Amino acid sequence: CVAKALAAAEAECQRRGARLTDIRRRVLELVWESHQPVGAYALLDILGREGWSAAPPTIYRALDFLQQNGLVHRIALLNAFVGCPRPGHAHGGTFLLCAACGMAAELDDSDIDRAIEQSAARSGFSVTRRTVEVEGLCPACRAGDGPS
Questions:
Q1: What are 92-123's pLDDT values in tens digits?
Q2: Looking at the whole model, is its pTM more than 0.70?
């Protein structure tokens, strides 16, 4: 999944005329490798162990770039980031977050998107960006197979 995500990111950056620098590419790679939401300081720790001389502003700039170009989503509840599986496709993020194990799953549900747009329009509101975060328990944690 990491190779596929990086190829899609490179294609999207080329389409937008944006530059996927080495540090941006490595941060994106680490986000995808984590398979869970990952915070900026965890990324900084990993990069430091790998010999990168990155400071917090460098990581935050890379994450801002990735977010602005639709390559990652920020999970506000966790102050963490996940890779976007559909770069180049206009969409908000709707996430299911497991309170026990930290798993995050992005929903691709046009009914949710439409309901938000219609409700906003009825209020005279124009949506420019949206993120919906729903916290609960994933199937494994509900079944008692998750972390204890």
A1: 789 999 999 988 998 888 898 889 999 999 99
A2: yes
Residue 124 falls in which region: left (phi positive, over 0), alpha (psi -120 to 50) or beta: left
pLDDT per position as a tens digit, 21-59: 999 999 999 999 988 899 999 999 999 999 998 889 999
Q: What's the rounded Cα separation, in Å, for the pair 61 and 67?
A: 10
Q: Tell me, rounded to whole angstroms, the distance of Cα 96 from its chain centroid.
A: 12
Residue 26 in tokens: 């490595």
Three-state DSSP class for residue 77: coil
End-to-end CA distance of the chain: 28
Query: H or E segment at 105?
Result: strand 104-106
Confirm if 57 and 67 have CB atoms less than 8 A apart.
Answer: no
